[in-house]
Amino acid sequence: MRPFRLLTTLATVGALLAAVVTTPAHATISGAGATNTATTVTYRFSYTGTPQYLRTYVDTDRNLSTGYAQGGIGADYLVENGNLYQHTGTGWSWTLLKAVTFTNTGGVAQWTVNRSDLGEAATPGDADLVFQAEAPLETSTKYTQMYTGGTGGVTYTPSTDNFANPERGLYHHTGDCDKADFSQATLENYRTTQGISLVMCVFYLADYKNGPIAQTALDHLQQQINIVRAAGLKMVLRFAYTTSTTGDDTSKDRVLQHLDQLAPYLTAGQDVIAVVQAGLIGAWGEWYYTQNFGNAGTISSTDWANRKAVTDKLLSVVPSSRMIQLRTPKFKRTMYSTTAVQPSDAYNGSALSRIGHHNDCFLASPDDFGTYENTSVEYPYLQADTTYVAMGGETCGTNPPRSQCPTATTELAQFHWSFLNTDYEPNVLNSWNTGGCLADITKNLGYRFRLESGTYPATAARGGSLPISFTVHNDGYATPFNPRSLELVLRNTSTGSTYKLPLTADPRRWTAGTSTTVDQTVTVPAGVPAGSYDLLLNLPDPLLSTRPEYSIRLANQGTWDAATGMNSLLHTLTVS
Questions:
Q1: Which has more pLDDT, 149 or 85?
Q2: Which of 111, 123, 124, 360 is the most exposed place for a label (fewest CB within 10 A)?
Q3: For residues 507-543, b (16+ Cβ closer than 10 Å) or e, as one string?
Q4: Would you state the torsion angle of the CA atoms of residues 171, 176, 181, 184, taken in this order, to the nearest 10 degrees?
Q5: DSSP state letters, 461-488
Q6: Strands 355-359 and 391-393, how do they pair?
C-alpha cells in the first residue's frame, strides 16, 4: 500500500487494494480535524497502538469519480508519514511530490502542507479527507474541511435596529400584579411596537399575613402567567406583603408556608418567568423596612439566619433553571460568599450560581440609596459576579451628574445589566434621552448578538460531516442568564422542510463586548433528501421551542425570519 513500497506481484497489489477499500472505520482513530491559513493546511488525528504508516487522503475537487477511491472520496493527494503524493493514472498510482512538515508524538499525527502544493492557490471552499493508520489498518469516516477565507465565507452586515429579544431590555411596570390584570393585546403591543419583551409582576400578599394564600389569589397569579405566555413576553416576578415603611410584613414561618403554596405555580410558569426577585421581606419586598427580619439596617445574627432561610426556601421552590435576585450585594456576600461566581461554577445549579442582583435606586446617590455599603469592595465583586448571574432594576431619582449618561452607560456595562424599568423614574430616563444615550441603552441592555463572519462548505453528503464556523460579537452589556439552545438548521429551498442539528456552544458564555467563534462539525442525517438547503441559526428557548417570539434575533441585516424565529446564515448548501 505504501506508495514507494516495492510491490512484487499483482496478487499482492490486489490484496492490498481490497484491504484499503473494504476495511471498516475503527474507533482507534479519533480527534480527526483540519485547519488552514492563507497559505497552508494542517491535518491532524489521534490514534492508539504503534502503526508504521499514518496517512491523510485529500480530495481537493470533492469528486468521487476522480482520484483514488478511498472511504467515499476520490483522493487527489495523499500525505503518508513525511511525504506528499499526487494521484496519477488509475488505481493505486501515486507520484512523490515532496517532503512535508510531519510530527508524530504522543499518539497524535499532524501534517502541515503548502496549499499551493495541493493546487489550491485560488482559495477553494472545501476538501474531503479520510484519515488512516496501519498496521492494523484503521480508516476514519469522511471528514469535510471548510477553508476559512474561502468561497464558503460570508461577511454579515450589522443592524442598528431596536427590536424585542427574550429576557432582556426595558420592561414595563404599570401596576400591582395582584390587582391590575394584564391585557394580552397591551403586552403584544409592547413587544411588536416598542421592542419590549419583559413585564414586572409584583404580586402582593397583604391579605394573607396571618393565614394561607387564598385559592382565588393563586388562580389570579396563574391567570397573569397565562396572559404573559399568550402575548409572547416574560415576567420579572416578585412577591411582597406591604408597601408601607412601617414594614408590616409577616413571620419567617408564614413566608415559608406561602412559598410551599406558590411552588407548583412557579414550576408551571417557569417557561415565562425570566427571574424571581427575592422580595417577601419588608416594604416593596426590598428588605429594608421590616418588622420581622431586622429593621432599617439593624440586623441581628438571628435576623440574618431568618433572611437566609427565606432565600434558601425560595431557591428550592423556584425551578433550578431559573435565578433569583437579591436587592443589594451585601445580602449575597453576607449569607453566602464574598467570592464572586467563578467561570467554572457558572450555571452549575448551586446557590451562588443562581443568585443575581437588582438595584432599584440606580445612580440616585453616591451609594444608590443604600444599595452599596463599600463600593471599593462591592464594585469589583459585582462586576465579576454579574458576568454570570442576572442583573437588573430601576432608577428612582435624579442625581446629576451621577445619574446622567456618562455614569449610566459606564455602570450599566460594568455591572452587566439585562433589564431596566422604562416607567420609572421618568426624569432620569428623560435626561438620558436628551443626553443622547437612551437609544443605545435600550439596544444594549442584556445581550445583543451580531454575526461577524462565517464559513460553510458548498456541499455535504447524507450521513457525512458538515463543518461550520461562525463568529458572533456580543454588543450588549450582558449575556443570556437562562438556558438557551443553539441549532444549525437545514431548510430545503424547494419544500421548506427543516432539519435541526444541535450545536454544543452555550450562548451564555458569549461574553459581553467580545467575539466568540463557534467551530463544530455536525453530521448530516442520512434521511435528509438530496437537494438545496438554506443554512439557518436557531437560538430557541428550551421550554418554548415552538414559539418564534422566544427565539433570539441576531443584530444583522437581512437575516431574521420572524415567522420561524430563525436567523439566516446567508448560505446555501447542496446535499448529495
A1: 85
A2: 123
A3: bbebbbeeebebebbbebeeebeeeebbbbbbbbbee
A4: 0
A5: -TTSEEEEEEEEEE-SSS---S----EE
A6: parallel
CA gap 101, 41 in Å, rounded: 11
Cell numbers 498510482: residue: 93
Give the CATH number of domain 169-317. Answer: 3.20.20.80
Q: Which CATH architecture has domain 154-160+449-575?
A: Sandwich (2.60)
- Listing DSSP states for 118-184 in one string gives GT-TT--SEEEEEEEEETTTEEPPPEEEE-TTSTTEEEPPB-------TT-EEEE--S-TTTS---H
Q: What residue type is 246 in one-letter code?
A: T
pLDDT digits (tens, 9 = 90+) for 287-339: 999 999 999 999 999 999 999 999 999 999 999 999 999 999 999 999 999 99
The domain segmentation of the chain, as residue ranges, is: 10-143, 154-160+449-575, 169-317, 323-445
For residue 4, what is its C-alpha cell? Answer: 514507494
Distance CA 389, CA 308 (A): 19
10-143 and 154-160+449-575, same CATH topology: yes
